[in-house]
Design a protein that fits this description.
The complex is a heterodimer of chains A (122) and B (110). Chain A has 122 residues and is mainly β. In chain A, 0% of the residues lie in helices and 49% in strands. In chain A, a hairpin with a 6-residue loop joins strand 5 and strand 6. With 110 residues, chain B is mostly beta strands. Helix content of chain B is 0%, strand content 44%. In chain B, a hairpin with a 5-residue loop joins strand 7 and strand 8. Chain B starts with 8 loop residues before the first strand and ends with a strand. The chains are: A mainly beta (122), B mainly beta (110). The interface between A and B is medium-sized, with 23 and 26 residues.
């Protein structure tokens, strides 16, 4: 059974830093591109970042470029999101999601974690 | 990249069919047949319902179907059931490896 379990969400002050983690199990982790997607309370979803199977390619939404860094450790079946210079508008539930289909050429999310809540507040 | 536009809410009676629209631009929905749809019940993670415009993952009811015309994608739920009451989100590939989600639609079963 595919499982994605996020952790690391806390309350942090504006300008602060945080690292989110996602522990994956039930599939061959290093076969898949992985994503972070966030959801503002009561609002829609927003794609944040992706990392290719080997970490060689990373992409970000413009609003987090230069502040967030996605990474992975395939030996630990884990995905990370380092979040620096946090802003109030980064407050959201952050989901880890698996790209649908191993390899490249697919553009949907087939499994999601339950999310970890990041609150940026003074 | 602006969010795709969805109606805030759609409602229908049990057994009826409803359609949720997802309007984008020629840079996202209009350029790629790569729209996916997600169902989200309160307090739960999103669940994939449709991918690549009209394909259903294994285990998803055939009451759910997807289509596209121009810059607008649509999700149709036929034979509406109480368990279909949830939020629905569309998502499109937007080029340069980026994805863009819709604003989300709350479906109410009357």
């Amino acid at each position: 059974e595919v499982q994605l379990v996020e952790s690391g969400g806390v309350v942090v002050q504006p300008g602060g830093s945080l690292r989110l983690s996602c522990a994956a199990s039930g599939f061959t982790f290093d076969d898949y591109t992985m994503h972070w997607v966030r959801q503002t309370p009561g609002k829609g979803l927003e794609w944040v970042s992706l990392i290719s199977w080997n970490g060689g390619n990373t992409y970000y939404i413009d609003s987090v470029k230069g502040r967030f860094t996605i990474s992975r450790d395939n030996s630990k079946n884990s995905l990370y999101l380092q979040m620096n210079s946090l802003r109030i508008e980064d407050t959201a539930l952050y989901y880890c999601a698996r790209n649908g289909g191993a390899g490249s050429g697919t553009y949907h999310f087939d499994y999601w974690g339950q999310g970890t809540l990041v609150t940026v507040s003074s | 990249q602006s969010a795709l536009t969805q109606p805030a809410s759609v409602s229908g009676s049990p057994g009826q069919s409803i359609t949720i629209s997802c309007s984008g631009t020629s840079s996202d929905v209009g350029s790629y047949n790569l729209v996916s749809w997600y169902q989200q019940h309160p307090g739960k993670a999103p669940k994939l319902m449709i991918y690549e415009g009209s394909k259903r993952p294994s285990g998803v009811s055939d009451r759910f179907s997807g289509s596209k015309s121009g810059n607008t994608a649509s999700l149709t739920i036929s034979g509406l059931q109480a368990e279909d009451e949830a939020d629905y989100h569309c998502c499109s590939y937007a080029g340069s490896s980026k994805r863009v989600f819709g604003t989300g639609t709350k479906v109410t079963v009357l």
